[in-house]
Amino acid sequence: MRVAVIGAGSAGLAGIKQCLAQSVDVVCYEKTDKVGGTWVYVPETGKDAFGLPIHSSMYDSLRTNLPKEVMGFPDYPIPENSRSYLHRTEILAFLNDYCDHFKLRDKIRFLHNVELAEPTNEKKWKVRVRDLRQNTTSEEQFDGVMICNGHYFDPSLPALKGRELFKGQQLHSHDYRVPDTFADKRVVVFGAGPSGMDLALEISKKAKRVILSHHSKETILTKFPDNVVQKKDVVELKENSAVFQDGSAEDVDIIFYCTGYKYSFPFLSESCGVRVDSNMVTPLWKHVIGIERPTLAFIGLPFYVCAFSMFDLQARFVLRFWLKQRDLPSREAMLADEKREMDDRFNKRGFTKRQFHMMGPLQGDYYDDLADTAAIERLPPVLTKLHNESSNRFLDDLVHYREDRYRIIDSENYIQLDAVNGN
Ligand code: FAD
Q1: What is the rounded CA–CA span in Å between residue 209 and residue 184?
Q2: Answer CATH for 157-257 from 3.40.50.11930, 3.50.50.60, 3.40.50.300, 3.40.50.20
Q3: Is any atom of ligand 1 closer than 6 Å to the C-beta of 57?
Q4: Nearest C-alpha to atom 50 of ligand 1 is from which residue?
Q5: Is 2-153+261-382 a CATH 3.30.410.40 domain?
Q6: What pLDDT is recorded for position 420?
Q7: CA–CA dist 85, 74 (Å, integer)
Q8: Where does the chain hold its CATH 3.50.50.60 domain(s)?
Q9: 264 CB less than 6 Å from ligand 1?
Q10: Going by CA atoms, what residue is nearest to atom 53 of ligand 1?
Q11: Which end of the chain has a smaller Cβ tally under 10 Å, C or N?
């Protein structure tokens, strides 16, 4: 079997690694000159030297929002360290170590941008790639395609009355790098997901006033510095001010959109049988395998997960079926499975389409389902437990939670180090 992996971020690396483990002939195309995707910090914003949009949304000061104990790969954990919440440079170094340890680099064609992935009549895939250095294109055929292009690069902006009237600066978190531009400014941070909360805190060190605007029903309880206030959604922008849902208005200099990203696969031909509907990628079996064309797989769609471990699990899952070590269910059975999941998420849990791939507290069941369905090794439950603990700590104490230190004891248990013997 010959497989194309699109993207050499952490998902693509896991995909290549698992292909090699199964002696599958694999080629990975990566449009930049580095592995690591999101974790590669690029000071510039806008376009790169080849005129392509800059992929990474990484900012300079970033420390992980999960402890390193849940951020490794199942067979390649992040080594011991004096702290649990690492700087972005340490994660990137780790991904490069992983790449070299498993000898993945030779399989990656850097500065190769996939422009088209299209199914052929012979049930194969045609992949058209631009060699960015030579500015030439070529086509190759594959039996399977693993899409590993990430989903934090195409900014999503809310519909907002008066946006074009506002005379100040408007910026999406995709283009945020350092807090200097916020010095002494009055800023509205739009959105209170993990990055909105983190960035409100970060820019509050420089800004005069930060208004964290969101539509959560409750006030966020975490204790912010005194120059950060919370308000319900902005409903309108005027020349120099923002109007909020409660009818109040504030003079502001910058609107900072932390409103997330769109799932985007610009290279996928319409005939691939998968579409994106408000960030729900469908029809897919178990958030991974294209139901209409099962030789198409997406590694890394779910969010609020133990990302690298899940990528590894999803790649192992896909290969079990591609290599016919297990029979794929019928198309009808896969569609029925997806329908059950939709009913559960939309009707029972009240999720929106944008939350279709959201895991969080559901992640443990999802991992077990993948592993058991494919009869492959499960992820240790301790990952889910520690992920959930860390997410709660983030919400409770945004300012201090990164000081926590953990150690995994076994597949079920972890300890918080400072709670034990003060070490
Ligand atoms: P990416 O890392 O985005 O990699 C995709 C790769 O595909 C890129 O290298 C890109 O250049 C390449 N590519 C895209 N299109 C093409 C194409 N057409 N042709 C060729 N190559 C292409 N997760 C955590 O677990 N902990 C954290 O603390 C954390 N912090 C985060 C902070 C920020 C600011 C962001 C944006 C994300 C964070 N994440 C975090 C999530 C993070 O994105 C995932 O952990 C993970 O790195 C995603 O990996 P990926 O391989 O799916 O995508």
Answers
A1: 8
A2: 3.50.50.60
A3: yes
A4: 150
A5: no
A6: 45
A7: 18
A8: 2-153+261-382, 157-257
A9: no
A10: 150
A11: C
- Cα 342 to Cα 151, 203, 294, 299, 354: the distances in Å are 21, 38, 20, 20, 12
Query: Residue 112 forms beta bridges with which residues?
Result: 131
Q: What's the 309 CA to ligand 1 centre distance in angstroms?
A: 14
**Among protein residues, the one whose CA lies closest to atom 7 of ligand 1:** 7
Q: What is the mean pLDDT of each run of 10 residues along the chain (423 residues)?
A: 98 98 98 98 98 98 97 96 95 98 98 98 95 98 98 96 96 97 96 91 96 81 88 95 95 97 97 97 98 98 98 98 98 98 98 97 98 98 96 91 95 83 41
Cα(264) to ligand 1 centroid in Å equals 13
Distance 39 CA to ligand 1 centre (A): 7
Give the DSSP H or E segment for 29: strand 25-29
Q: Is the CB of 84 within 6 Å of ligand 1? A: no
> What single letter denotes the amino acid at residue 7?
G
Whole-number pLDDT of residue 421: 44
